[in-house]
Model the fold of this input.
Amino acid sequence: MAHTHLLGFPRIGAQRELKFAQEAFWRGDLAEPQLRELGATLRSRHWRLQRDAGVSRVSTGDFAWYDQTLTLCATLGALPSRFGFDARTLTLSQYFELARGNAAQPAMEMTKWFDTNYHYLVPELSPESRFEGGVDWLFDELDEALDQGFEAKPVILGPLTFLWLAKCHGASADFDRLSLLPRLVQAYRRILRGFAQRGVEWVQIDEPALCLDLPANWLAAYAPAYQDLTGTGVKLLLATYFDTAADHAVLACQLPVQGFHIDLVRAPQQLPAWRTALPADAVLSVGVVDGRNIWRTDLRKQLPVLQALHAELQDRLWVAPSCSLLHVPFSLAQERKLDTDVRAWLAFATEKLGELQTLARALNEGEDAVVAELDAADAAVRSRQTSPRVRHAIVQKRLDRLTPEMAQRHSPFVQRQAVQRETLGLPLLPTTTIGSFPQTAAIRQTRAAHKRGELSAQAYLERIREEIELVVRKQEALGLDVLVHGEAERNDMVEYFAEQLWGYAFTEHGWVQSYGSRCVKPPVLYGDVVRPEPITVETTRYAQSLTVRPMKGMLTGPVTMLQWSFVRDDQPRETTAFQLALAIRDEVADLEKAGIRLIQIDEPAFREGLPLRQSDWPVYLGWAVRAFQLSAACVQDSTQVHTHMCYAEFNDILPSIAAMDADVITIETSRSAMALLDGFGDFAYPNQIGPGVYDIHSPRVPSVAAMSALLGRALSVIPAERLWVNPDCGLKTRHWPETEAALAHMVQAAQAWREKLAA
Ligand code: GLN
Ligand code: ZN
Done:
């Protein structure tokens, strides 16, 4: 008998109940027992869904009050000592303080979980880290499942991946955290024993680090570490996902574990290596249902592979999603407005459970037992393949006609710079912002009313125009050199453009956890992208008409549009990126035609698209850079192209950033006190650059002196002729008083440096 299981289930609930409860608790509007009760209800509901779908053992340990890595830190007793908390007696409030910071301590650092948009809390370790144990929440969760009569398989992040994702700070920044492994493994032993005492047979131990480029000493550490995890009384299923681990299949299969999970959606090519290496009695769990995307599985296409595996492995074959379902929305059931065609092509977490069940029954009972389900899947796949809404001949034709020249500006940067200097007449160290201005409650209400149909298009436009005028006047009064219209009409920088393009669909409840209580609702990019008409031209033109100062047009770049959407899997990502690029290119051309002389194409997600393996970077960077160039390169020399990136490490992709050839790039740098900028200096980044001089995440108003000092640092790396002055990122989450005060200081700091440089 083939079994099915999940690597994890979304915890936020069908209606984002967990989010609202967390936030109510933080506000003091919900008491702790009620919050706990809600968590228990959600867990129980999700376990029932799994059991009803025939899953042999429901997953526990995939729930977390904020983040599963933080919960693991609290379980191991690996909390940052700066908080002074005792992991064994940690309260829920203290747990949230670790995640969100408190009056005395900034929050633990948060970063993206591999190449997903989920953020985990980075374990903070030091030579003193002891792992002497902490909260029992993982056991409580398990007991809860067992008490309710479920068979359970606890899920836990493995020790090597835990250490790999951890960081040592301050004085111990250079400390080799791998040396903590023997101590850490003892803590894992205690946890596994605890599971065994409760009668658990299988534990899923996640080691996705095996899909990264791990140094040799880290790889060598697997064998002794897992040797130390034997004899606890549980069987271990070692799980890898998000990429291939084929190059480590032999290493993994020599570990004293009893099973392996591999991601066959991202890396189907790794199967032969694992089949060869698989020990005679080991379980192989194959991830054949996409845990990262929302398309229905082509079940009949998967079956032959599974049937061959089943014939050989019998009940040692487990069928699973490729990774935890944390990365997809809860259920399609509540989507009422979704277009029926598109809806039929999709499967969210709950529907994916159904797909697993169908696959298992086809294996165990024969295809005849699930003919209807398989036919339905076929019909969905065929409908998507043949739908006239997916393919548009004009788009295909345009892609076929792409030429290298289309991705190149007419003249090299130096020449363009000279022309732009003439035509734009900007002062030295020009000041600007990144695009958005404070999104007041009034603006949000206006947008919502318009969306609900309560505010006519005309009235809405007028309201937005008033807002634009306000923003323009404020910028003029502040003395900024390059103005923006403020983005009041945009709820989200991707959704706003997606709504104006063909090929996109939108869900009502397709929420996915991003971090803590924050969720995102990525639009669904199902078809060829067409821009039927200009998107931003009217607003931008109106903004420019209000002022003699140059107005910067504001667009979202193709790579970010791709990265922050659920994208089609029926063509290479790069093809979709080029389609998006052409749509944006049309917008760029229309903005230029309308007299806009500076156009910013934001690419904050450029870096997060990087593949896990460095050997795959050149291919990604090649098409990502090309997509950006395609979107931008249609303009005259005199039109200045800006781009913006933030909250990422750029130093290792500087050649690609330079190859994008934007006239100006603005980046976030203030958090690292300009350390980031050194990379640009060392690399001798050739074009203009605006390193952020203040952190937009804090309401604190930085002083003129503080920003002057940062500018001084920047000037030591970038010549004044190529330096811009701006905040780190958009200002939409800020309030007006602090925004105006901070920008006034920023303009003063720039002015002071201009005088100093002129003297
Ligand atoms: N132009 C966008 C803004 O200012 C950029 C946002 C971002 O970088 N994420 O809001
Ligand atoms: Zn930004």
The longest helix spans residues 736-758. The domain at 393-758 is CATH 3.20.20.210 (TIM Barrel). The radius of gyration is 27 Å.
